[in-house]
Amino acid sequence: MSEENIDKTQCLIIGSGPAGYTAAIYAARADLKPVLYQGLQPGGQLTETTDVENFPGYPEGTNGPEMMEEFKKQAEKFEADIRWGIINEVDLSKRPFTAKTDDGKIIIADTIIIATGASARWLGLLSEAEYNGYGVSACATCDGYFYKGKDVAVVGGGDTAAEEATYLSKLCRKVYLIHRRNELRASKAMQNKVLNTSNIKVVWDHIPKEIIGETEGFAKKVTGVILTNVKTGEEKKIDIDGFFVAIGHKPNSDMFKDYLEMNEVGYIKTKPDSTATNIEGVFAAGDVQDHVFRQAVTAAGTGCMAAIEAERFLGSYE
Q1: What residue ranges of the chain have pLDDT lower than 50?
Q2: Looking at domain 122-245, which CATH architecture does it have?
Q3: pLDDT (tens digit, 9 = 90+) per residue, 188-226?
Q4: Whether the domain at 3-119+249-316 and the domain at 122-245 fall into the same CATH topology
């Protein structure tokens, strides 16, 4: 391996989005000269969100792609090295750590901040992809406010779906909870909340077949969903303004499974009040370690924490 194909850095940040870019801002200001690889989805899940109204500092709101571009520019202002590309292999068995990019470059890093995020699980419908960000969402907390006083549907049967439906019931006129079985998989406490909320209607034994919408110029909006009864095959249509997919998220952590402690579904475990993992010098921030809140503002907060902890860790070895 030629020397020109090897880079060395005090701090390697894997992944962008609010966590990665915020970590880059703080690490750069601390003169760690961080290198950040943006990954498969530069800007993270927020780039799929058309409107963002719940991030502090944007009183008129903004949209996800623009917001992430501003995060990126701020990191670059402080001379963070933001790179287009993917880290597809790591060796965390010893310090300094080693990472390999998709084009074969080797990065040797004294510390690593993992900010690879999580990916929403989708149904796989073509219409779901068509209206994603235009009435189709995977986050009620992020987008529920846009459907205040309107009718929406949530698909799923676990705790996530029950929580999303309950949250939306406080904002929306009516919430349809669509589930393929005749009983929910959610905890009893969450089931009781759903079944005892007057404006939540559970649609048992049905799966979505197609999301219906309208397009006017460049504007799209959801107007309904066609459901199929899994027992009889009969179809029916319900009129809705928003469609929320709540069948879970998958943390993008597979690359680290041989080294880092994770919970049963793959979220990286971090120490209490910290972003530190079980390996000294490796930190995790954002949705790859947060299965509770999954918000842009909390991801940014843990990105800040990770950079500060990386700086302190390096300081302790000087």
Answers
A1: none
A2: 3-Layer(bba) Sandwich (3.50)
A3: 989 999 999 999 999 999 999 999 999 877 789 999 999
A4: yes
Q: Is residue 11 flagged as an active site residue?
A: no
Q: Is 212 exposed, middle or buried (0-12, 13-18, 19+ CB in 10 A)?
A: middle
pLDDT value of residue 219: 81
What pLDDT score does 197 carry? 97
d(CA 22, CA 36): 11
Of the candidates 11, 110, 139, 172, the residue annotated as catalytic is 139
pLDDT value for 44: 81
| SS3 of residue 259 by DSSP | coil
pLDDT at 9: 97
Indicate whether this model's pTM tops 0.90: no
What pLDDT was estimated at residue 50? 62
DSSP state of 8: E
CA 42/CA 47 separation, integer angstroms:
8
Contact 285, 295 (CB under 8 A): no
Q: Please name the residue that has the structure tokens 């009781």.
A: 192
Q: Which of 143, 151, 241, 290 is catalytic?
A: 143
pLDDT for position 275: 98
Residues 282 and 11: beta-carbon distance below 8 Å: no
Which of 3.50.50.60, 1.20.1280.170, 3.30.565.10, 3.20.20.70 is the CATH number of 3-119+249-316? 3.50.50.60
Active site residue 143: yes
Q: Of the residues 11, 110, 142, 151, which is catalytic? A: 142
Instruction: For the chain, count helices (H), then strands (E).
Output: 7, 17
